[in-house]
Design a protein that fits this description.
883 residues, alpha/beta, Carbamate kinase, VC0802-like, 5 domains, 8-stranded mixed sheet, 31 helices, elongated
Length: 883
């Protein structure tokens, strides 16, 4: 087949064997046919036989128009490319500047383009808000003036007065009526796109581009389902082809998105995000080469990056994957956008208006990898619960529900029910929740009277999170993470394919839920948010250790430790992104007075997940906050021994609360600093091992003091001062010398064996003379020499080759409710296990039935800020890995 262009002034001959063969020879045959059919002002001449071929005559200029967009000067395909710009791309300032630059560059590079425009910035939301105020009789003038001021901006040569006058008339009418119809609402919202289209067209003309505005109400025809109108495809396609065939060669068409009209020219809209749908329809009707969707983000992400900062860009999606994302609420895609593109195999590329370098996300027939996953959200939903014990065994309830809702144009996104149909949950758009409730109450009126149905209730302010590509085999991981973060889904279901799981959560939990689930699903660094209390020797060292190890832990373990709160007894430093290495300076300069409620509120406001509170204080008052921390979703780590040595009732209550809230409380450093003592005893006891005795040097402070005192010929006071300066003792050394610290450690171990001992049950030898037990720390430190004579006599009265050790001893029948606990200074043979301890080491002997006379011995560094901080750090990581 061939084309014979015979230019005889006004006529040409188009010659082919027949139309089928002619068009089959060109990949654009359908488009060419549609162009010819839509050209109502083309007069076909009588079909003649010319050289054995059928021929007809068409006006030369008309033929040029028909060929526009189908052939370029070389006779090759010159497919059109559709560009669509979203509202944020069209914002004043950088947004508009970038849009004009993108369009201008493409035109100057000879690209054949058409542009679809959304309303600018938040125009649609603003118009709807003004409309609602008008309907309620409220003063909307200031809102309207703000809207008008933003849309006009500083564009002096662009007259938008006609559009604003029409809006004023509509709002005044609504005010008089006190209400508005869906039809009026569509008329009002349409002005967002109309203003946007007129403005961008004028600005492009100012840039030297021959831009022409096409009102999509002349192109896209729909039924009269105002607010979410249904497409009339054939007439819309004909309109688009006809309108484009009349464009001049250098004209750049700008089309208003989102809006359409009925066949009687009443304005309709295509639903929220309908501009994307408009663009895909235009692309379909014109057999476009590609649809480029320009937004304010770099493409499609594994989750909305506005909610999840760690979300990752997906380079490529298949049509089916993108359609799943759209159906499950991906806001960057309209739920109907993908189908028109699939029909013509037209690629969609999602790009960032503000980032020239980014390649965006390509949506085509190919997928980059199997089983792509993404978190999609439908935010503004409501849950309707229909309950009634009389529904047991009744058939047809679902049919009645769906028929009723369908008659009221209400779509159900999720349904959940038991096999007995005693309770049914339905998720609908929040705006239609009350309509749905009223409709169902009318439908089931007789069932209320017979008491087959008890209640129909609405749970408002819920959101649906869909994990696209997630099957139930691994769903336990994100689900468990939600529960540990105190987010309990209201209901969930999975699709028939088993590859998509949807959860309904309270809208207030949405942000936090997305972050919790995202880390679990995609294996991206799990953020663990830490609140540290106390930054003295141990606490300050811990902060420095965390900050120094942060990067390495994230690389090795995939755990991002984020210290968002640091506090002492007076000041609190907060930073949701984590404190810096200059924390000491910052807490002095930026720290604020606080209560723990400040921290709870801050964590909620910023949707912080995976919370751990770390108590490095020695304060009994602070321990009183533990229940509040658990209630507010925090796990606990503590080097503070007080909580585990208060009354046994408190000890049991806090563990009941931990179990109830599924929280962990780790305190390995309570006994033996960094030694794995508590974990070892827990495991032995859990395995059923009968532990018969625990004995040893539990205090690294007193170990250092008496090890050194036994070996060196120097005074006790000098050695004590050395221990204080090395950070081995508590801030008040009397806490160590009194034996209370060792007593608490011994009591903690007793309670790990489920013994119900109280602190008063411990026999403790207090090493402090009565005269020095009261008074300030400073006064005590000034009187240390008083201790020298007392301890010299004890040392001198030992048997040969003996040394002093301050030990704790738990013994007796440890299978009963209580054991015997003693803390005292003893003299032991130098060659014994206790006698050979050096420096500040602790040593603990664990006697069991299995080990007999040969105890399990745990020995190592038992004191020092670095060792204790490292033990606390270990507890933090243990919790972080289990979250």
């Amino acid at each position: 087949a061939f084309i014979n262009l015979q230019n005889s002034k006004t006529n040409i001959h188009i010659i082919g064997v027949d139309s089928d063969l002619f068009f089959t020879a060109n990949e654009n045959k359908d488009t060419f046919k549609q162009l010819a059919q839509a050209k109502s002002n083309v007069t076909y001449g009588e079909i003649q036989s010319l050289h054995g071929h059928d021929a007809f005559l068409i006006e030369f200029e008309q033929m040029q128009q028909l060929l526009k967009g189908v052939f370029d000067a070389n006779g090759k395909s010159a497919k059109i490319k559709i560009l669509k710009f979203g509202g944020k791309s069209l914002s004043n300032g950088e947004g508009l500047g970038r849009v004009l630059e993108i369009i201008t560059n493409k035109v100057k590079n000879g690209e054949n383009i058409a542009v679809v425009l959304s309303a600018r910035e938040k125009a649609t939301d603003q118009l709807e808000a003004i409309l609602n105020k008008a309907a309620k009789g409220l003063d909307y003038r200031e809102d309207f003036e703000n809207f008008e001021r933003y849309q006009k901006h500083t564009f002096k040569n662009i007259n938008l007065s006609e559009e604003f006058q029409e809006l004023v008339k509509l709002f005044e009418g609504v005010t008089l009526l006190g209400d508005y119809s869906a039809k009026i609402k569509d008329q009002v919202l349409a002005y967002g796109e109309l203003i946007s289209g007129k403005l961008i067209t004028k600005l492009l003309i100012g840039e030297g581009i021959n831009a022409k505005l096409l009102d999509s109400r002349r192109l896209i025809k729909t039924d009269d389902s105002y607010g979410d109108a249904k497409l009339l495809e054939d007439v819309s396609r004909e309109n688009v082809i006809h309108e484009f065939s009349n464009l001049k060669p250098d004209e750049v068409p700008l089309i208003t998105g989102f809006i359409a009209s009925t066949e009687t020219d009443e304005t309709t809209t295509l639903g929220r995000n309908g501009s994307n749908y408009t663009a895909s329809l235009i692309a379909n009707f014109l057999d476009a080469e590609e649809l480029e969707n320009y937004t304010h983000v770099d493409g499609i992400f594994t989750a909305n990056p506005e909610f999840v900062s760690e979300a990752q860009r997906i380079e490529q999606l298949s049509y089916s994957e993108a359609n799943e994302l759209a159906n499950f609420g991906a806001t960057i895609l309209h739920a109907k956008t993908i189908i028109p593109l699939i029909e013509k195999n037209i690629p969609l590329r999602v790009l960032n208006t503000f980032n020239n370098e980014n390649e965006g996300t390509l949506i085509s027939a190919k997928s980059s990898k199997e089983g792509i996953k993404s978190l999609s959200v439908i935010e503004n939903e409501a849950l309707i619960n229909l309950e009634g014990r009389g529904l047991l065994g009744k058939v047809g309830i679902d049919a009645r529900i769906f028929r009723t809702l369908s008659q009221n144009n209400i779509s159900v996104s999720i349904i959940s029910q038991g096999s007995s149909e005693r309770g049914i949950g339905l998720v609908v758009n929040s705006e239609k929740a009350h309509l749905a409730k009223r409709a169902l109450e009318m439908e089931f009126e007789s069932d209320f009277q017979s008491r087959d149905i008890n209640t129909i209730t609405i749970v408002s302010e819920v959101s649906v999170i869909s994990i696209v590509g997630q099957d139930l085999s691994t769903f336990h991981k994100p689900y468990n993470a939600l529960i540990k973060n105190q987010i309990v889904p209201l209901l969930f279901n999975n699709t028939i394919s088993g590859k998509n799981v949807s959860l309904v959560v309270k809208k207030s939990d949405l942000h936090k839920a997305l972050n919790v689930m995202h880390g679990q699903i995609f294996g991206i660094s799990k953020k663990v948010n830490l609140a540290i209390f106390g930054h003295g020797n141990v606490g300050g060292t811990l902060v420095d250790q965390i900050l120094a190890s942060k990067k390495g832990i994230e690389e090795r373990k995939g755990i991002n430790l984020n210290v968002f709160a640091l506090a002492n007894s007076k000041k609190l430093l907060l930073n949701k992104d984590g404190i810096s290495k200059k924390w000491e300076e910052e807490i002095n300069e930026k720290g604020i007075p606080y209560t723990v409620e400040h921290i709870f509120d801050y964590a909620k406001i910023h949707h912080l997940e995976n919370l751990i509170a770390i108590d490095n204080t020695a304060s009994q008052d602070f321990v009183a906050n533990y229940f509040d921390f658990i209630e507010n979703g925090f796990d606990l780590v503590s080097s503070n021994k007080i909580a585990n040595t208060l009354g046994f009732d408190y000890y049991r209550l806090i563990r009941d609360e931990l179990a109830k809230k599924q929280k962990q409380y780790l305190y390995e450093t309570n006994v033996g600093a960094g030694l794995p003592l508590i974990d070892t005893i827990k495991l032995l006891h859990l395995s059923g091992e009968n532990i018969t005795r625990i004995k040893g040097v539990f205090s690294g402070s007193l170990s250092y003091i008496f090890n050194t005192f036994s070996e060196k010929d120097t005074s006790f006071s000098k050695i004590l001062k050395s221990a204080i300066s090395n950070g081995y003792t508590e801030p008040d050394p009397r806490e160590d010398l009194s034996g209370n610290d060792v007593g608490r450690k011994l009591l903690i171990l007793a309670r790990e064996l489920e013994l119900e001992n109280e602190f008063d049950d411990i026999s403790i030898q207090n090493l402090i003379p009565v005269s020095l037990r009261n008074g300030s720390v400073k006064e005590f430190l000034n009187e240390l020499e008083v201790l020298d004579d007392y301890f010299s006599k004890i040392k001198d009265n030992q048997e040969p080759n003996h040394v002093l050790r301050y030990v704790g001893d738990l013994y007796g029948d440890l299978q009963k409710e209580k054991g015997k606990l003693e803390v005292k200074l003893v003299s032991v043979p130098k060659e014994s296990a206790l006698g050979q301890v050096k420096g500040s080491d602790s040593i603990i002997e664990i006697y069991t039935e299995s080990y007999g006379e040969h105890p399990l011995v745990i020995q190592g560094a038992g004191a020092g800020a670095a060792v204790t901080a490292r033990g606390v750090f270990g507890d933090i990581l243990r919790i972080a890995e289990k979250i």
